[in-house]
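example protein:
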Amino acid sequence: MKTPRSRAVRAVIAGHLAIWASGHLHSAVLFAQQPKHPFGAADVARMQEVSDPVVSPDGEWVAYVVKTSDLAKDRRQSDLWMVRWDGSRSVRLTHTAEESERAPRWSPDGRWLAFLSSRGDTNDAAQLWLLDRAGGEAERVTSLEGGVTDYAWAPDGVRLALVVQDAEPTDSVATGVDTTKKRPKPIVVDRYWFKEDYSGYLGKRREHLWLFDLATRQAAQITTGSYDDALPAWSPDGQTIAFASKRGPDPDRNDDWNVYTVPPAAGAEPVRVTSYEGNDGDATWGSLPAWSPDAKRIAYLRAGPLKLIYYASQRLATVGADGSGEALVSPKLDRWVSLPRWSPDGGSIYFLLEEDRAYHLARVPAAGGEVERIVTGKRVLSALSLGPRGRIAVLAATADAPAEVYAVEQGGNLRQLSRHNADWLAEVELGTTEEISFKS
């Protein structure tokens, strides 16, 4: 039986609840109505740069790099993350406060995630590290004086091809540093290409291929010489490494990159497999030579004649592993392409296609034929990783949002996996973008 007192108590409680709900509703409305502020300089520091997505061998995860800014320390730092393919979970893998990590690469069995970092290195040279996917601390596995600038897993998961910079010359004249007295010395310039952005003065140090054995933790130098070797890619049978190099009497004075192959053995002799008198497999653009699944052909990028320097489009080409049958895959395609990747059955080649102020995902039959645009629209795709069961991850950016990791779905639709810039984007008012076209 309800008494007058119980009804009164319930009325008071109901009134308080109504006031509480009303206040919170009012707060929620005010919060929702908070005006966005114009994009400014402070927002630039909030922007997170997402890069280098790689699909795991089982197709269940995508590892990638996130670079952030620290204004107080006036520095940028990158860490490794991974996200489940279904987007249900995102995990930050590295948390070092002072050092950066980059270039994540899954071992063939998916147990290890390798990366490069200069953690704890006094000369700031990056080394190879391994992180167990099951958890635990990362382990440094190389201690090479010149540092590791790039690497690739062998199909057996036991060996790796490393790109290692030569050790500092003992006299240090080329770098302008007296290591004994710690005072500047004259910089001696004795090569045509003597400095470059970010690196500064180059001296005589070059980058070469090394072979690293995980079981013994031993490294052996494969290539030598007064030229740089880059972009190692293992053949599917593990018998050969393809790479890009610019060789000849004075490689500083030309842009004639070529694709070479070499057995994974110390002191092995490289073989040039491209013969075009122009730029093949240019390491400047970072597009790896790509082996066909049967290890018989290599896809790579060919630029125009050397006299055109950078102004000729990079075009898709293939060549036999023995250097035979060098040809453009789609000769009529007059657009810049990048990042060739073979389909699992070897019947087609995926790549990124620059077209009308956008970068699309495209595919072409390996034997030649019509180019199929898979992901189109007004966006820029800047990375491409193929996984099992037809899974493809890309980086995609638009005029209104920085690059994030996306999964490519049926029909060329994109499904967003990472959301590192969502919070600050929701708080800013971006300017409008208009397209302008004209004939010239």
